[in-house]
């Protein structure tokens, strides 16, 4: 089954044209899609409304899926492979802020996500975009001396330090989050197991500090790394349309969900999460 690849930006991203995601894909087509994913890091599929079953079936072309047992509150009631990414909690009618800082999915676990596929179900009338950045280029753009110093070091990733989490939770709730999801150390420079390329692996949402340095010592270095990662020329901004599906590689891409829309409007997305290889270790944080 043939398809066309159209680049979306110079840094990353490509649209796949001419492929029906609801059909059964042959091995050759899947191999070609995987190759395009490795090359472009993000794949966009336009105007294809998918049922949960169809999204799950297509996502499995790229690997094993997470059942989101760690966050049952947001799982689809009939399909645990689907994570419902909403700005409104149905049970409580509470407004939610999700993914408002740059991050890589599940970096705070010992099995970070390999990839994620987000499907647009309901969108605000304007805004609600998602931005992505190329972490290969972020690493390669650092000076050789800084790369040498960082390579082999680890950074601590902590779910409880995310800005929206700290704003919405009490100190006792934050302690419970840390108890259930203890901070982990991940390599600052991560080697992609498929391409062999090195990617920067720190994020403003979850990285607290570089292991072995104090918070103050880490801050200036991390701020520089964040600026390097999200420089304009390293970013693709996706303007969603209903029926869009975007697949990205969490091993070499960070993303951020923008709050550039009327909060009274509903934004509903369905996410499947590809299980990654084990990575990191539990951190010893006082």
Brief summary:
This protein is of the alpha+beta class and 286 residues long. It contains seven helices and 18 strands. The relative contact order is 0.24.
Descriptive labels:
Double-stranded beta-helix; four-stranded antiparallel sheet; 7 helices; globular; alpha+beta; seven-stranded mixed sheet; 286 residues
Q: DSSP helix count? A: 7
Overall average residue pLDDT: 93
Helix content: 10-25%
The structure class reads alpha+beta
Provide the number of structural domains.
Answer: 1
Stated plainly, the CATH topology is called Double-stranded beta-helix
User: Which CATH C-level class is it?
Assistant: Alpha Beta
Strand order of the largest sheet: 1-2-3-15-7-17-4
Number of strands: 18
Q: Care to describe what's here?
A:
The structure is a single chain. By secondary structure, the chain is an alpha+beta fold. The protein has a single domain (4-279), classed as Double-stranded beta-helix (4-Layer Sandwich), CATH 3.60.130.10. The protein is built from 7 helices and 18 strands. The chain has helices at 27-40, 52-59, 135-140, 144-150, 163-168, 171-180, 215-229; strands at residues 4-7, 14-17, 42-45, 83-86, 88-89, 94-95, 113-122, 130-134, 154-157, 184-187, 189-191, 198-200, 207-210, 235-238, 245-249, 253-257, 268-275, 281-282. It has a 7-stranded mixed sheet with strand order 1-2-3-15-7-17-4, with helices on one face. A 4-stranded antiparallel sheet has the order 13-9-10-18. A hairpin with a 6-residue loop joins strand 1 (4-7) and strand 2 (14-17). The protein is globular, with a radius of gyration of 18 Å. It starts with a strand and ends with a strand.
């Amino acid at each position: 089954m043939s398809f066309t690849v159209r680049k979306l930006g110079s840094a990353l991203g490509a649209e796949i044209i001419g492929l029906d995601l609801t059909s059964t894909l042959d091995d050759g087509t899947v191999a070609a899609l995987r190759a395009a994913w490795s090359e472009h890091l993000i794949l966009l599929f336009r105007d294809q409304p998918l049922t949960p079953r169809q999204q799950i079936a297509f996502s499995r072309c790229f690997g094993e899926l997470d059942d989101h047992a760690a966050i049952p509150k947001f799982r689809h009631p009939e399909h645990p492979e689907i994570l419902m990414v909403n700005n409104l909690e149905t049970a409580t009618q509470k407004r939610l802020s999700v993914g408002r800082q740059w991050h890589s999915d599940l970096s705070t676990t010992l099995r970070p996500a390999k990839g994620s596929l987000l499907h647009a179900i309901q969108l605000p009338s304007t805004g609600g975009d998602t931005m992505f950045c190329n972490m290969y280029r972020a690493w390669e753009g650092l000076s050789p001396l800084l790369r040498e110093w960082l390579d082999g070091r680890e950074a601590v990733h902590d779910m409880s330090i995310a800005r929206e989490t700290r704003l919405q939770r009490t100190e006792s709730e934050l302690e419970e989050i840390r108890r259930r999801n203890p901070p982990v150390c991940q390599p600052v420079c991560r080697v992609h197991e498929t391409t062999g390329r090195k990617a920067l692996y720190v994020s403003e949402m979850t990285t607290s500090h570089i292991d072995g340095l104090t918070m103050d010592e880490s801050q200036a270095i991390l701020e520089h790394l964040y600026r390097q990662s999200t420089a304009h020329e390293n970013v693709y901004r996706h303007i969603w349309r209903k029926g869009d599906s975007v697949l990205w590689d969490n091993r070499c891409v960070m993303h951020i969900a923008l709050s550039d829309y009327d909060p009274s409007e509903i934004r509903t997305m369905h996410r499947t999460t590809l299980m990654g290889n084990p990575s990191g270790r539990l951190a010893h944080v006082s």
